[in-house]
Amino acid sequence: DSGVTQTPKHLITATGQRVTLRCSPRSGDLSVYWYQQSLDQGLQFLIQYYNGEERAKGNILERFSAQQFPDLHSELNLSSLELGDSALYFCASSVEGRYGQPQHFGDGTRLSIL
Amino acid sequence: EDQVTQSPEALRLQEGESSSLNCSYTVSGLRGLFWYRQDPGKGPEFLFTLYSAGEEKEKERLKATLTKKESFLHITAPKPEDSATYLCAVQARLGNQFYFGTGTSLTVIP
């Protein structure tokens, strides 16, 4: 058990809808990362937050947004969903936002768009 | 363009048969190279971080090494419980972004 909690584990919705994925980092970790994992592309880095502030941004679509709250949990919001957004979404956390910190991953949210 | 390439895509070994997994990378300044293990239905599990060429780290039957262009994950006398997908990732200086390879799926046969 990595200590990172993601909810829900599974989510099924339709095209055009909006969903929110939630992540609670390990106790004491200040930095949160979001990733998308699809069969054909592997893990794609979306965004990183450190203590509530955006630290790094990857290939995150404009339809997607994220935030980290004062209690350090994070939410990833996906809107105007398309079939291609079906994937596993992982959250990870690290102690600090310093470079090269090992990340600890949750078990993901599987999003299926019908 | 920053990228990470892992080879082979899949590897089948007999128990006790040592081998190496390769991770080649091109990145605009390396902040760190990471190895993870991922079991089916689970998130990646952190194994090692390497920061500079020449660095080596070991954990049980695994040893990771780093050069300026690639990293190797050496598996010595593997056991069936080592079966998993092994992922390599780099953090780039430019934008502090992370790039993952698509992994090597390792199967160790008893």
Overview of the molecule:
The complex is a heterodimer of chains A (114) and B (110). By secondary structure, chain A is mostly beta strands. Helix content of chain A is 0%, strand content 53%. Chain A has strands at residues 5-7, 10-13, 19-24, 31-38, 42-50, 53-57, 64-68, 74-78, 87-94, 104-105, 109-113. In chain A, strands 2, 4, 5, 6, 9, 10 and 11 form a 7-stranded mixed β-sheet that branches. In chain A, strands 1-3-8-7 form a 4-stranded antiparallel β-sheet, with no helix packed on it. The model of chain A has no long low-confidence stretch (mean pLDDT 93). Chain B is mainly β and 110 residues long. In chain B, 0% of the residues lie in helices and 60% in strands. Chain B has no helices and 11 strands. Chain B has strands at residues 3-7, 10-14, 19-26, 30-38, 45-50, 56-59, 62-66, 70-75, 84-92, 98-100, 104-109. In chain B, the strands form 2 sheets. In chain B, strands 2, 4, 5, 9, 10 and 11 form a 6-stranded mixed β-sheet that branches. In chain B, strands 1-3-8-7-6 form a 5-stranded antiparallel β-sheet, with no helix packed on it. In chain B, a hairpin with a 2-residue loop joins strand 6 and strand 7. At the A-B interface, strand 5, strand 6 and strand 10 of A face strand 4, strand 5, strand 9 and strand 10 of B.
Overview features:
heterodimer; A: 114 residues; mainly beta; 7-stranded mixed β-sheet; 4-stranded antiparallel β-sheet; 53% strand; B: 110 residues; 5-stranded antiparallel β-sheet; globular
Give the gist of this structure.
The complex is a heterodimer of chains A (114) and B (110). Chain A has 114 residues and is mostly beta strands.
How do the helices and strands line up, and which of them pair or pack?
The complex is a heterodimer of chains A (about 110) and B (about 110).
Chain A: E1 5-7, E2 10-13, E3 19-24, E4 31-38, E5 42-50, E6 53-57, E7 64-68, E8 74-78, E9 87-94, E10 104-105, E11 109-113
Parallel strand pairs in A: 2-11
Antiparallel strand pairs in A: 1-3, 3-8, 4-5, 4-9, 5-6, 7-8, 9-10, 9-11
Chain B: E1 3-7, E2 10-14, E3 19-26, E4 30-38, E5 45-50, E6 56-59, E7 62-66, E8 70-75, E9 84-92, E10 98-100, E11 104-109
Parallel strand pairs in B: 2-11
Antiparallel strand pairs in B: 1-3, 3-8, 4-5, 4-9, 6-7, 7-8, 9-10, 9-11
